[in-house]
Structures are given as structure tokens and as C-alpha cells.
């Protein structure tokens, strides 16, 4: 089975010129995963697709589990959550995606 990693973040992906650190780290990680042959998607409220990953425009701050499940590609095998969404929704997502990890970015 080919891996498909979905990154979820509340900042622009890829980062814009005014971006700080966390979305630059997510962008770098997604690019490196793609270079390894992994299919990568990024879900955030702002951004665009590039040659490394497909961007999914989604307002993570106002997410609901039902609306989120509708936008997650069917072939996603792994989710890497980088912040900005309710912990209750993330908890529910782990039931459908046991390979979900939550990554803490310290400021």
C-alpha cells in the first residue's frame, strides 16, 4: 500500500513571505516526504498546491468532524496534525486514522 500523508495546519501552506516558523517546518517536511515517493497533501485555511503536495483549502478553526471527513482524500493513510483544530475532533479522527500523530511546535 502506498503511503499518503495529510498534514493539517492552521497556517498558510506553503508559507507566504510573511510566515514565521511552524508552517515553514511543515512545508519542509512535506517536501521531503514527497521526495521519498510518499503522496502528500496539506490541509490549511490558505495556500496552494505545488509540485510536492496538493493543497486542500479548509478552515481548521471552524472545523466539524463531518465536514473534515468530506475533504480528506480517500487514500490518506497517515495524518500529521500540526495545530489549530479542536482536540475533540482530533480524538475522533484517530478512530478512523490510527496512524494520526500530533506534532507540537514550540514558540
Fold and architecture overview:
This protein is α/β, with parallel strands linked by helices. It contains three helices and five strands. It has helices at 22-35, 65-71, 87-96, and strands at residues 4-8, 39-44, 54-57, 78-81, 100-102. A five-stranded parallel β-sheet has the order 3-2-1-4-5, sandwiched between helices. The chain is globular and about 35 Å long. The N and C termini lie far apart (36 Å). The mean pLDDT is 93.
Tags for this entry?
5-stranded parallel beta sheet; 3 helices; alpha/beta; 107 residues
C-alpha Rg (nearest Å): 13 Å
Alpha-carbon distance between the termini? 36 Å
Q: What level of helicity do the residues show?
A: 25-40%
**Continuous helix count:** 3
3D shape? globular
Structural class: alpha/beta
- Please outline the major beta sheet: 5 strands, parallel
Strand order within the widest beta sheet: 3-2-1-4-5
What's the mean pLDDT score? 93
Low-pLDDT runs: none
Our estimate of the beta-strand percent is 15-25%
- SSE topology string: EHEEHEHE
Oligomeric state of shown chains: single chain
- Tell me the number of strands: 5
Summarize the structure.
The protein is 29% helix and 21% strand. The chain has helices spanning 22-35, 65-71, 87-96, and strands spanning 4-8, 39-44, 54-57, 78-81, 100-102.
